[in-house]
# Entry
Amino acid sequence: MNHPALDPVYFSSEPWGVRVQNWLAGKDESFLEGNHRLVRQIMENEESGLRMVMNISAEALLSFLAAHRYYNLYENPVIGGARREPSEERRRVDELLAFDRDPSNFYFGAVALGGTGVRFYGEYCMAMKPDRVHSGTRIFDRDSYDLLLSPLKDEEDVTALAKKLAGHWKPDVFDMLTLKLLPELRGANRLITTGTVSEMILHDQEFVEVHREGSIYPWEIEEVRQSPDEIAMEARIQARGNAGIPPTAVELRWLQQRQEVVNALERDGIRYRVVTLHGRGYQWR
# Structure
């Protein structure tokens, strides 16, 4: 099957900042330049700016806090009562990413601006302290499993392509995300808000990946975030119980684990909060 050629501006060997300028060249749209400035301003806000986040289940979070260390699949952790290991697909992707050191020493996350991360991987979102993600931390402009799918897997040299999609936190994260967002803002007739930027940076399983080298410890976690959806579900179960409809065994275990998580986070002094997307917020500061 033939695929259209990949965008030569986006899939370029140029630095990410140059790619942004090349993409903007010749695009004379009333709101595009203003939104370009706003996207950067929103992302660069120190108080609520970009974070590396990792989503995790309640059971895995409790194990992390008990062991005082985060394990990746290369370390064969026990999850859900079973010992896990990386799949053949994961090993293949890590080969394509061409880590300069042993891939077992890298821990994966996503870039987020607020929000609750990639909930597919777990209901609890752990946000790293900004100073624990050093400037040379590797980033990748999408879910790295995309390298195994068309059209990327059909390229003649997928490893070379992967290098074009990679960067490092300090010099590249703002430009990489800017180039991700700007095409979606073409033709806009209004200025973007913080909540929209947050949603566009990490939407479902569409995100920029972070490859942090070195183990992760509880004291490096800035906060644990949770979506209002789980709070609403907890309230519904409790309301049904108050109405005389007893919870199922699964629901009781789920409620118990949630309380265990709260207790463990309080014990370790880790902030825990429910977050929602915000609107204009600090946009005009």
